[in-house]
Amino acid sequence: MSTTSLRILDQAERLFAEQGFNETSLRAITSAAEVNIASVNYHFGSKKNLIQAVFNRYLEDFYSGYNEQISALAVDSQAVTQRQAIEAAIIAMLGRDLNVARARRFMMLLRHAYAQQQGHLRRFIQDHYNDDYRRMIQHLAGKKLQDGAKLKFYWRLQFLMGAAMFSLAEFDTLDAIADAQYHERISTHELLDLFIPTALAILNPQSEEC
C-alpha cells in the first residue's frame, strides 16, 4: 500500500471513529490527510470502499492474531474453552504491539457501524470473514448449539459486544466518573482483566433470571 493511501486510511479511521461515518465528509478526510479528492477516488474509489478498507485493515489483523493464538494452544479446535477464546480475542484485539488505543478506536468504529446501519459493511464482512467469524463464535459458545439455544446465545453475544464497545469507547468518561466517586482510577489493561470473568458470566448465566 502506498504512502498516500496509508495516510488517507489513517485519517479516515481517526475521523470515522471520532465523528461517525455519516458526519465525516471526504473533504474532511482529504484535508486531514493533505491530499485531494482525486487521490481518494484513485486509491479507494468511493467513501463506502474507504469505510470497508478501514475495517478490513483491522479485521485482517484481528482474525490473523486470533487464529494464531488458537493454533498456539495446540489443541483440537473443538476443545478450545470459552476462557481461551475470550483471552485469544482480547490479545488479537490489542494486536502484536498490545495497542490499547487502537482497540478502543475500533470499538468506537463498531459502535458507529451499529448505530448508523452500514449495510454495505455488514455484507463486506460476511463475504470476507464469515468462516473466521463462525469459527470464533463456535469457540465462544463452548459447545454445539441446538436450534432452540441459538437465538439466546445471539443476544448474549450482543450484550457482550455492547459491554465491550461502551466500556472501551467511553473509557475516559467512565474512568473520570469512577475517579470522582471512588478516588481511584484503573488502566485499560486492568479493565480487560476484569472483562474476562464478566464475559464468561454473560455467555453462561447461571439461570434464566441472570
UniProtKB/TrEMBL annotation:
InterPro entries assigned: DNA-bd_HTH_TetR-type_CS, Homeodomain-like_sf, HTH-type_TetR-like_transc_reg, HTH_TetR, PsrA_TetR_C, Tet_transcr_reg_TetR-rel_C_sf
GO molecular function, one term: DNA-binding transcription factor activity
Superkingdom as given in the UniProt entry: Bacteria
SUPFAM superfamilies reported for this sequence: Homeodomain-like, Tetracyclin repressor-like, C-terminal domain
One Pfam family this sequence matches: TetR_N
DNA-binding positions: 25-44
Keyword set, alphabetical order: DNA-binding
Domain HTH tetR-type span(s) in chain numbering: 2-62
PANTHER family from the UniProt entry: HTH-TYPE TRANSCRIPTIONAL REGULATOR RUTR, TRANSCRIPTIONAL REGULATORY PROTEIN
Descriptive protein name: TetR family transcriptional regulator
